[in-house]
Amino acid sequence: MELYDKIKNLCAGAKAASPVLARASAKQKNAALLKIAELLWAEREVILAANRQDLDRAGENGVPAHMMDRLALNEGRISGICDALRELVGLTDPIGSGECWTRPSGIKIRCVRVPLGVIGIIFEARPNVTVDAAALCLKTGNATVLRGGKEAINTNMALVSLMQKALVEVGLDKNAVSLITDTTHEGANLLMQMTDYVDVLIPRGSARLIRAVKENSKVPVIETGAGNCHLYVDESADLDMAVKIALNAKCQRPAVCNAIETLLVHENVAAQVLPMIAEKMAEFKVEFRCDAATKPYIPGAVDAAESDWGTEYDDYILAVKAVSSLDEAIDHINKYNTGHSEAIITRSYENGRRFQQEIDAAAVYINASTRFTDGGEFGFGAEIGISTQKMHARGPMGLMALTSQKYLIEGDGEIR
Amino acid sequence: MELYDKIKNLCAGAKAASPVLARASAKQKNAALLKIAELLWAEREVILAANRQDLDRAGENGVPAHMMDRLALNEGRISGICDALRELVGLTDPIGSGECWTRPSGIKIRCVRVPLGVIGIIFEARPNVTVDAAALCLKTGNATVLRGGKEAINTNMALVSLMQKALVEVGLDKNAVSLITDTTHEGANLLMQMTDYVDVLIPRGSARLIRAVKENSKVPVIETGAGNCHLYVDESADLDMAVKIALNAKCQRPAVCNAIETLLVHENVAAQVLPMIAEKMAEFKVEFRCDAATKPYIPGAVDAAESDWGTEYDDYILAVKAVSSLDEAIDHINKYNTGHSEAIITRSYENGRRFQQEIDAAAVYINASTRFTDGGEFGFGAEIGISTQKMHARGPMGLMALTSQKYLIEGDGEIR
Questions:
Q1: Which CATH number fits domain A3-224+392-410: 3.40.605.10, 2.30.130.10, 1.20.120.140, 3.30.450.40?
Q2: Residue of A197, A251, A416 best to disrupt the B interface, most CBs of B under 10 A
Q3: What is the pLDDT of residue B11?
Q4: Which CATH superfamily is domain A229-374 in?
């Protein structure tokens, strides 16, 4: 069969499964989540064997160590995946909830949450995303079409096969979760054209992946993740707090989207705070790329190029720049940021207030680390990604971001 | 100047105006709306003179009567536009409102509504849309780039010039509302590529216009309006109610998107209810396009073609089809509808419930006319259009649909 027909049939199958899934009770969907957790744990040897195949091939192909680490499963990680499924059961299902009111005309209106329908997820070789994304979609009554990175294909096939088995065991359609096994670019591109069957595409992964999906997809896309985040140390900052937060925001987990990439420092405190920050970050061997004004204060710093201001390093690298005012800091951030997370360290009420008002980003912090931009930390209990767009959802996307709405109107013969 | 540069500069001007507008108080935005109403009324002769130019040219070009009617302004219509502006002042401004909570980590989170930024509106030759769309965007702190139909260009230039004068008089940037004066397709197409400056495009008008924008736009689009709406008369229906609602939904205002295009009738009541409906609709000279099963019951009916089931007539034409079950009605509607408004007339609790659950549309009615799908009728006070997509907004879009959100986080040095 042609690849086009194969992917079309798979997406059509997901579409056909979606109305029944949309009407499934929370009880039934939770039973499916628990059954998936049960089967993944019971069949962990099958999953680990498939994962070993992927790891062996990746090793032969010289896949870098950090990607090997993301790809690798072990009993502990499978246990973690199962725990996440059980936690998801405890969250409130938004489907069917909403508001109701009666109009002067007599009609009674309910506005209730409904699933989006079929959600396509394009992601890289991270097997935890496979289960996590499908589970969040299932919890909200959406069918999922997964298309993961080629390095994880055997693992993904094992995981999806077990998820489908669990769906069938609780009386749901196995097509509620499906996997595109073609891992060429063509496979992903075809998924992006399936406007008749797929309601939304969510890319999860690198900035390059997200850009490729956004540029090529005819299916509506929710952009996630790209985070060129800044920390601005104001003239009035508590400098010890600035050091502590800079260290956390850069070094606790540099590869994630809510880590900072650029440190902006008011010129009047640069000489004092930068050596303190450099000293603390020495432990992590952070590379500093500085403008002319800040370079003298950091031993071993290199010159920043224009391109550094727009780069998401995802690594132990920090761009550093002095600014002469809050306005300059705000202008720099609004010029280079990706609309993700930005922070100011300040003791000034007015500067904090202006920073929050004028910075255009999903999350704007005063005196706290950008690392808090996360569905769990925000209290949503789960997260499908972090939206950096303004439409539909912005910031950490919990279950509500996977829903739409529907107006249900009841009358007794009312006309206009 | 090249057209590209002209439109780019105009959009860049709107973008530059948007942060200040985003921070404008409700009081200031309301002052602008009142000033616009004042100036439009004071300068009504200027507007009417421009409108006469447009009407004269349209008359020479043989523009059809119903389009001439949409294009025409008079004192009454200008007064209506001004009344709508004053009503908008009375609505609550959603900007800055939202929820707040504190997390165990100690961070305090506010999730507040913010403007989308710059909204592009592509519409046809309806001068009331010019003011209405700009006013709704202004009320929610969004800058607007308008691109109206060529037949209304003089009227639009007069209206936008007065709106800009009002903005300046209350201390706002005139670029908060601007008009693309090029009315070629090229002008609209360039607007659709301005991803650096325009956050959202909302097409308002015919299905053809909306499809063209959706297919060509790189800027995210909110689809509005196309309505292939159905009324299903169930076997258990109160037939007098069915007649009354069919008449209202088809004939009260056939050119609008929430009017019905197809009538589905359960085969067991077709012989009884169809002659009643045909009799009432005779007054409006409705043309009936029937399947074989229903044609005998309607004098003068013609045969429906397959294409009739997917056509939005926007006219005194009604497609009619018999179905043998609720399932067949639901399947037909889900196959041909545009996700707008659908209604069932029934006395059966179970059939009403299933219809509302299983029909995939923004608004699903039991025993009421589809004509109620409207921001005003739903109680939103104003409406920028009716979304037929599932992302961001679905159904009548009030002020909330013109907003996004932003998380404002306050801490005292919290780190992860």
A1: 3.40.605.10
A2: A416
A3: 98
A4: Aldehyde Dehydrogenase; Chain A, domain 2 (3.40.309.10)
Residues in chain B with CB shorter than 8 Å from the CB of A360 are: 19, 117
CATH 3.40.309.10 fits B229-376, yes or no: yes
How far apart, in whole angstroms, are the C-alpha atoms of residue A213 and residue A210?
Answer: 5
Q: What is the pLDDT of residues B92-150, one digit of tens each?
A: 999 999 999 999 999 999 999 999 999 999 999 899 899 999 999 999 999 999 999 99
Of the candidates A109, A247, A389, the beta carbon closest to that of B378 is on A109
Mean pLDDT of A153-164: 98
What's the whole-number mean pLDDT along residues A188-204?
Answer: 94
DSSP per-residue letters across B288-304 = EEE-TTTGGGSTT-EEP
Identify which has the larger pLDDT, A81 or A255: A81
Q: How far is B306 from chain A (nearest CA, A)?
A: 20
Residue of A nearest to B118 (CA): A390
- Chain B CB within 8 Å of residue A350 CB: no
CB contact (8 A) between residue B414 and residue A369: yes
Residue A302 touches chain B, beta carbons under 8 Å: no
The class of domain B3-224+400-410 in CATH terms is alpha beta
- Number of Cβ within 10 Å of residue A395's Cβ equals 27
pLDDT mean across residues, chain B:
96
Quick one: pLDDT at residue A363?
A: 98
Rounded to an integer, the average pLDDT of A212-224 is 89
Q: Across chain A, what does the average pLDDT equal?
A: 96
* Integer Cα distance of B126 and B106 in angstroms: 53
Give the domain ranges of chain A.
Answer: 3-224+392-410, 229-374
CB contacts under 8 A, B 47-106 vs A, are 101, 103, 105
User: Would you call B365 an interface residue with chain A, using a CB distance cutoff of 8 Å?
Assistant: yes
Chain A residues inside the 8 Å CB shell of B199: 390-391
Predicted local distance difference test score (pLDDT) of residue A52: 97
Using the Cβ of B361 and the Cβ atoms of chain A, whether some distance falls under 8 Å is answered with: yes
Would an 8 Å CB–CB cutoff place A369 in contact with chain B?
A: yes
Alpha-carbon span B47 to B179, nearest angstrom: 16
A397, A409, A410, best to mutate vs chain B, most B CBs in 10 Å: A409
Kindly indicate the confidence band of residue A67, based on its pLDDT and cuts at 50, 70 and 90. confident
pLDDT band at residue A90 using 50, 70 and 90 as cut-offs:
very high
A376 touches chain B (CB under 8 A): no
**How close, in Å, is residue B76 to chain A by CA atoms?**
22
A-contacting residues of B 122-181, CB under 8 Å?
A: none
